[in-house]
């Protein structure tokens, strides 16, 4: 019985993920829809990162915002992601002292 429950749960999660992948590959969208769909990962990433930036120090959200700005600045300079993360960490550390 437990094995059937596990199989059923895996099908319930697998089918809604696989069906759109097969359908979307066969559809032709207009250019503006493709541009809009291409922006979704960046919007989702921002929605995941921004609350964490604001919660670095609960009573001092400006420290997290400044650390985020340092990360944006370093990434605009074209630095490797490791240096961007380390720079943001260092900025938050020195601002917290």
Strand content: under 5%
Average of pLDDT: 92
The chain-level structural class is mainly alpha
Label the overall shape. Answer: extended
Overall domain count: 2
**Uncertain residue segments:** none
Order of helices and strands: HHHH
Number of strands: 0
Give a short account of the largest sheet: none
Q: Count the helices. How many?
A: 4
Q: Terminal Cα separation, in Å?
A: 57 Å
**Helical amount among residues, as a percent range?**
over 70%
Folded structure, characterized:
The protein is an all-alpha fold and 97 residues long. It folds into two domains: 1-42, no CATH class; 55-97. Helix content is 84%, strand content 0%.
Describe the structure in brief.
The protein is an all-alpha fold. The chain contains four helices and no strands.
Tags for this entry?
4 helices, single chain, 0% strand, mainly alpha, 84% helix, 97 residues
Write the layout of secondary structure elements.
Layout: H1 2-26, H2 31-54, H3 61-76, H4 81-96
Helix pairs in contact: 3-4
